[in-house]
């Protein structure tokens, strides 16, 4: 069972303290300070959305920064996801 | 008697506890936590809506996630439906 | 004496309890629960409205569902009408 | 001395109780219930307004229904007029 | 020293009681009831403004009606002017 | 060190009492009544801004009137500047 | 590890008191008065964003003035960044 985003939507999963430590971004004690970092789980097809051509610029596995207060929280099979528009993702975090 | 949605409108039916259990998405006791999951009942024709070309991307029978607070509630023959715009549907739930 | 809607406007008449029973949609006692069901009385010509091409998709006699809080109430010759934009009509009710 | 509306503007004159009776629309005692019925006094030339082509669809002498709260009230030579945009006129009342 | 309006801007001068009497529009005692009547002092060149082609439809000397609450008040050499957009002028008053 | 405005931005410097007297616009005692008069210090290149072609219509040295509450105040090397969009400048003051 | 901005986004780093002194812009004691001056750290690719062609006009290393209240604050590896849209940058500070 999985979430397949439509149009310009992107499914994200909040990075948890353990994962962010593993990736070296933050110390565990600071995890609550970074609520906008997430991992891309699935990416919509893009195309013409609301009359504008959208090319998706992130891919599954990317670590991203997204706009505060953006998106819809969804729980599926006990996991929490955030679904945002591609334009709510403002940067990719590269190693 | 049935609802025929116009333009980019989609008729949804809220998934009830029994149905969601059957589909394996949630345990009955958690049904009240997922108010945005619904099944597509009927899909408008799309086309040019508000000056923009809209291609409908869901079909009757799809399980979908839709935007909180979107849509109009309608009761017909004792059944409750939600009519939303296609752009208020953000993801399809696939098995 | 009659109302001739302009542009993308549609003249509606609220379905009353008797009529809705006759059409089989609702039991009389439930009439107050369906304030958004109405019958189309007259349809504007469509065409270019606010810079966008609008094709009218309902016709006089259609039973329709329209957006809550949409439209302007008008009384003419003792009858009450609601004038809405075509885009405020979200679905047609077919038998 | 007269008001010449610009662009998509239309000059209206509220129908008074006497006039509405004469036209048969309402009984004098109900005049205060119909504040949106007016007679067209003058019509702007239309054309490209705010980047959109507007074709004026009413003419002087038409009885019209206009949007509540729309328009600007103007007094000239002791007469009260309402100047609205053509898109604030939603229907023509025909005999 | 003079005000040269840019783009779709128009410089207006409020008609004072004496002037409006002279033009026959109002009696002096009613001057405070007509705050939206003004004389055009200078007219911007029009052209493409905010991506739309604007053709100026008033000229210096015109008596006009403008939208309430529109415009910017400016004092220059002891004179008060109102600078409005052309679209805030809704009608010309002709003799 | 200087401010180079981007796109459709214009750097302004508020006219102080001494300067406005010198140019003959106002008496020193009235300086606090004219907060929207300023001198253009630098002008952005214009071009396509937010999808629209903008041609800059003021130049360094122009005395201008700008919209109240528009712009961003910046202090550089002890001098105060206001940076506004070209569309916030409504008129040029010519001698 | 670094931030790679998408679309029309720009990663900025607030100029601290020491740095601004070094560049000669401000005296250390005045640092708290200039919260909108920052150095460009990384620049998105531009291109078609929200249906409009955006050409990025700043480059890494530029000292810029940006709109108050614009942008998203991000902390990465103990450093604070501000991510803004290119249109929120209003001027470049040149030496």
Describe, in plain words, how this protein is organized in 3D.
7 copies of one chain form a homoheptamer. Chain A is mostly beta strands. In chain A, 39% of the residues are buried. Chain A has a single domain, classed as GroES chaperonin (10 Kd Chaperonin, Protein Cpn10, Chain O, Roll). In chain A, 6% of the residues lie in helices and 47% in strands. Chain A is built from 1 helix and 9 strands, in the order E-E-H-E-E-E-E-E-E-E. Chain A has one helix at residues 17-22, and strands spanning 2-5, 9-14, 37-43, 47-49, 52-54, 63-66, 72-76, 79-85, 89-94. At the F-G interface, strand 1 and strand 7 of F face strand 9 of G. Strand 1 (2-5) of chain B pairs antiparallel with strand 9 (89-94) of chain C, so a sheet runs across the interface.
How is this fold's topology laid out?
The structure is a homoheptamer of 95-residue chains.
Chain A: E1 2-5, E2 9-14, H1 17-22, E3 37-43, E4 47-49, E5 52-54, E6 63-66, E7 72-76, E8 79-85, E9 89-94
Name a few traits of the molecule.
mainly beta; unfolded protein binding (chains A, B, C, D, E, F, G); chaperone (chains A, B, C, D, E, F, G); globular; Chaperonin_GroES_sf (chains A, B, C, D, E, F, G); homoheptamer; 10 Kd Chaperonin, Protein Cpn10, Chain O; Chaperonin_GroES (chains A, B, C, D, E, F, G); 6-stranded antiparallel sheet; 95 residues
- Structural class based on helices, strands and sheet pairing of chain A: mainly beta
State the strand order across the main sheet of chain A: 7-8-2-3-6-9
Give the uncertain stretches of chain A in residue-range form.
Answer: 17-22, 24-33
Q: Quick one: CATH class of chain A?
A: Mainly Beta
Count every beta strand of chain A, where a strand is a DSSP E run of 2 or more residues.
Answer: 9
Q: Compute the number of helices of chain A.
A: 1
Q: What count of structural domains of chain A? A: 1
Helix share, percent of chain A:
under 10%
Succession of helices and strands of chain A: EEHEEEEEEE
Protein name (chains A, B, C, D, E, F, G): Co-chaperonin GroES
Subunit structure (chains A, B, C, D, E, F, G): Heptamer of 7 subunits arranged in a ring. Interacts with the chaperonin GroEL.
Keywords (chains A, B, C, D, E, F, G): Chaperone, Cytoplasm
Main location (chains A, B, C, D, E, F, G): cytoplasm
């Amino acid at each position: 069972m999985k979430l397949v985003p439509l149009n310009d939507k992107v499914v994200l999963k909040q990075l948890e303290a353990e994962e962010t430590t593993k990736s070296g971004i933050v110390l565990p004690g600071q995890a609550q300070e970074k609520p906008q970092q997430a991992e891309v789980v699935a990416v919509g097809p893009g195309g013409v959305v609301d009359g504008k051509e959208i090319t998706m610029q992130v891919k599954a596995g990317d670590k991203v920064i997204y706009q505060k207060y953006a998106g819809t929280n969804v729980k599926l099979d006990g996991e929490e996801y955030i679904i945002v528009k591609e334009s709510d993702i403002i940067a990719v975090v590269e190693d």
